[in-house]
Write a structure and sequence with these properties.
Shape: globular
Order of helices and strands: HEHEHEHEHEHEHEHHEEEEEEHHHEEH
CATH superfamily of one domain: Dihydrodipicolinate Reductase, domain 2
Structural class: alpha/beta
CATH class of one domain: Alpha Beta
Radius of gyration: 21 Å
Number of helices: 13
CATH topology of one domain: Dihydrodipicolinate Reductase, domain 2
Length: 448
């Protein structure tokens, strides 16, 4: 696990200091004191939508772990989750917290699951790493590139086990597609196409035209906004639909970049494609166009976008939402054919490859082996025990999101960006470089 460089700007100093200087606080032993049979003890931070799903997954792995704490700034979500956990274990041992700092202060907790809105990923993740916790965190890794770099540094410094919620890596069809590409069935990759959703999806049925008003009594809204700019409460940019405002989310691009771009990078994780075993590569050049609503709109994230990247070995890499010629999922193209995979859809230019790779995968008889996980949450728990790397460690998640962040910056500036993937800097564009990090609000809940 390597430490990444970061630009020395005032806005990143807080995160950078926390990720490289803060003391390491180890639990009293590897597995929590209160956990029976040396089960891994888990605290869940954020249990609304996806967080509730992750909680259910950990509750279903009771032979390996026990959930002992829940944290959420919405008291309704908090109570529902605590009651669910205690009912599952038939006791009252699970405790609830509004402030994640209190949960992280417990030395009997081995690992945390972080499933907050994007703008709340970096601070609790860095604090958890500094507190000696292993971490399962949702995608996209971070709200900005600078936060991602600081998170990678914190996890590396503290030698934590990290799993990103990019669960497609633990699904057989995505693995088969990657195996075909890495094992040279299509030859050296010349082009990659990543198709993501476009527009906005109204997950809460609020629409985007409701007026501002008071936050629900069950929610600490100041804490919920946290490090982002304070905005009046609006139900259209709250639970689930926070994705469609850049103050808290990144639109369809960033909501999906950690899935399909992650798989596309995985397929390139072969030295012959100019990519190392950790997908340790990035675009050399990035240009982008996008269609945006007004900045002042409740939903202001891009509704249509196209990002054109140049990768090492002269690979053209396209990420698009709203362009029909770019099919959903990940597609690799080479001189000998193509492979495409999406949820529920795995195919290749030669149908015989599909059957052949499934047989080779079952036998374990591949020239280029690929990390195999069949349960994303269990892979995390197994790696906590073995101290081996998960299938989606933090460095991979950071690389997977990088072209999305750079594409957003390129679309706003209207300029082609040159990216130094080793130094993690935009080259020769000071204005664009400033967008790598945002300014945090200086409020007590944002301490690390």
């Amino acid at each position: 696990m390597t430490t990444l460089p970061i630009t020395n700007r005032r806005n990143v100093l807080k995160l950078l200091a926390a990720s490289t200087v803060a003391p390491l606080i180890l639990p009293s032993r590897l597995f929590g004191q209160s956990a029976p049979s040396k089960k891994i003890t888990i605290g869940c931070i954020g249990v609304g939508w996806q967080g509730g799903s992750n909680l259910d997954s950990f509750l279903g792995l009771s032979d390996d772990c026990q959930v002992v704490a829940i944290c959420d700034v919405d008291e309704a979500h908090l109570k529902e989750a605590v009651d669910k956990v205690n009912a599952r274990y038939n006791n009252k041992d699970c405790k609830g917290y509004k402030d994640f700092h209190e949960l992280l202060a417990r030395t009997d907790i081995d690992a945390v699951s972080i499933c907050t809105p994007d703008h709340w990923h970096s601070i609790p993740a860095i604090a958890a790493a500094n507190a000696g916790k292993d971490i399962f965190c949702e995608k996209p890794l971070s709200h900005t590139l600078g936060e991602g770099i600081a998170m990678v540094n914190a996890v590396a410094k503290n030698k934590r086990i990290w799993q990103t919620g990019s669960w497609q890596r633990s699904v057989a069809s995505f693995r088969w597609a990657v195996q075909l590409v890495q094992n040279g069935y299509i030859g050296k990759v010349t082009r990659v196409e990543v198709g993501l959703p476009s527009g906005h999806a109204d997950f809460e049925g609020t629409g985007n035209d409701k007026p501002n008003g008071p936050a629900p009594a069950s929610v600490d809204y100041d804490f919920w906004i946290g490090p982002s700019e304070m905005m009046p409460f609006n139900p259209c940019r709250f639970h689930k639909n926070w994705r469609w405002n850049y103050n808290t989310g990144g639109g369809q691009l960033m909501d999906w970049i950690g899935h399909h771009c992650d798989i596309a990078h995985w397929g390139l994780a072969n030295p012959q494609f100019g990519c190392g075993p950790d997908d340790a590569v990035g675009p050399l050049e990035v240009s982008a166009t996008a269609e945006f609503p007004k900045k002042t709109d409740v939903w202001n994230t891009a509704t249509k976008y196209r990002i054109e990247c140049k990768y090492p070995n002269n690979i053209d890499f396209v990420i698009a939402g709203g362009y029909g010629e770019i099919a959903g999922g990940a597609k690799w193209i080479g001189p000998d054919g193509w492979v495409q995979v999406d949820r529920g859809n795995f195919k290749a230019s030669n149908p015989d490859w599909v059957r052949e790779i499934q047989q080779l995968d079952k036998k374990g008889d591949l020239k280029v082996p690929v990390y195999k996980s069949e349960n994303h949450h269990k892979n995390f728990l197994d790696c906590i025990k073995s101290r081996k790397r998960t299938i989606t460690p933090i460095e991979i998640a950071h690389r997977s999101q990088t072209p999305g962040h750079l594409g957003y910056i390129a679309s706003v500036t209207g300029r082609k960006l040159k990216w130094d993937a080793v130094k993690q800097v935009i080259v020769g564009d000071p204005e664009a470089s400033k967008m790598i990090m945002k300014k945090f609000r200086d409020v007590p809940c944002c301490r690390i």
